[in-house]
Amino acid sequence: MFKKFISKSRAKSPWIMHFDGGSCNGCDIEVLACLTPLYDVERFGIVNVGNPKHADVLLVTGTINHRNAKVLRNIYDQMPDPKGVIAIGACGLSGGIFRECYNVLGGVDKVIPVDVYVPGCPAKPEAIIDGVVAALGKFEGLKG
Amino acid sequence: MKTLILIILGIVVAPFLGGLIAGLDRKITARFQSRFGPPIVQPFFDVAKLFGKVKVVNNFWQVFCAWIYVIAAALSVGLFFAQSDLLLIFFVQAIGAVFLVMGALSTPSPYSQVGAQRELIQILTYEPLIILVFVSIYLVTGSFRIDEILQYSQPLMHKLPLMFIVLGYALTIKLRKSPFDFSTSHHAHQELVKGVLTEFSGPYLGLIEIAHWYETILILGICALFWHTSFIGMVILLVTTYLAEILIDNTMARMTWRWMLGYVWSIGLAMSFVNLIWLYAG
Asked: Is the CB of residue B188 less than 8 Å away from at least one CB of chain A?
């Protein structure tokens, strides 16, 4: 019974952490818009934490390049399991219009495993919330 | 036998009450910000989720300190429900608070270190005030024992109104509310990330959260002593106090530790002395 409650709680309380790769700030503003009273993701128990050790879901915006790949990897490794990764925006998915640049590796999945891809340039807040909900599907399948 | 039942009741019921109060707190805060807010049982989901996470531990001390913190908090609430000695409760509670700081100090993380130093200053700020509150309760009732305090014929509030405000300062610091939340904050977004709690994760963060609920109940219980004569009076007093805490939390910005120490000690000590002089002159 306790294990069932834990696995239910995972879906009820995803704490997100936001990592900005080389974003133009468009997707970042949309991520922050989710936290405003208009969308108010806290009603789903989503809290934006700034500490990878407390986070369950990592939101990554922007391109991943040779510089920030190490940082992203480090943050991902500090998050305790079970964890999910969501790539947001065209740049997070594939590198977007910057994919041919000499310094850009490409999408987030070149460095860490990604669970959900949220397209858009920038991605809409509704789409980001939808992406977090889709990532929760991964948690629900886990046994406590 | 009755004492034992009361202790068990206190240890089992207190975290549930504390969690519900934390949930109500978040809901009311959300309404203040014209949001809908999470469900009232949200803190229980959070803690259950934390217990389901993988244990990531820096060193053994962290685990030990998290456990001592929760045990000390539970013990102090148990002693309170058993109507034991206020001074004993105070010392047990202080041990828990110090072990939280030691757990944070045991890791080399700068956020954790600075948070621990700030938490120490917070402890330094509120502990003398709590002691003064207990001493003034003793001066009125002639006893530190809660069962004897409860025998007192009129509410302590009539004799110690200023001491209640002083206890309110301690409550605000203990609940980690603005403007005194500078060792840790509700969301890990400040210059300190999450202060003392930065390096605690997973089940150990859950333990600390439960200990925090215990401490909320303990301090609210001490507040309740100020109107022990009628149950309704006690409930009204606690609800008003906690609503005032939430209001202060939402309207105040965080201050520096110098401001906190100077302000809380000067105002707190001044109010204590005025109240004690008034107690003797009146």
From this structure: yes
Taking the model in full, what pTM does it have?
0.91
Beta carbons of A50 and A81 less than 8 angstroms apart: no
Please tell me what DSSP assigns to residue B128: H
Whether A53 sits inside 8 A of B30 (CB atoms) is no
SS3 string, B248-277, reads HHHHCCCCCHHHHHHHHHHHHHHHHHHHHH
Using one digit for the tens of pLDDT, what is the confidence trace for A28-67?
Answer: 899 888 888 888 888 888 888 888 888 889 999 988 888 8
CB–CB of B239/B246 below 8 Å?
no
Report ipTM (2 d.p.): 0.87
How do beta strands A116-118 and A64-65 pair?
Answer: unpaired
User: CA-to-CA distance for B100 and B65, rounded, in angstroms?
Assistant: 6
Residue A101 phi, psi (nearest 5): -65, 150
Give the closest-approach CA distance of A32 to chain B in angstroms: 13
Tell me if chain A has a CB within 8 Å of the CB of B158: no
Pairing of β A104-106 and β A64-65: antiparallel
Integer-rounded Cα radius of gyration of chain B: 18
* Residue B35 to residue A42, Cβ atoms within 8 A: yes
Residue among A105, A96, A83 at smallest CA distance from A27: A96
Q: Name the burial class of residue B181, with classes exposed (0-12), middle (13-18) and buried (19+) by CB atoms within 10 angstroms of its CB.
A: buried
The string of pLDDT tens digits covering residues B55-76 is 888 888 889 999 999 999 999 9
Residue A129 to residues A112, A120, B117: CA-CA distances in angstroms? 21, 13, 38
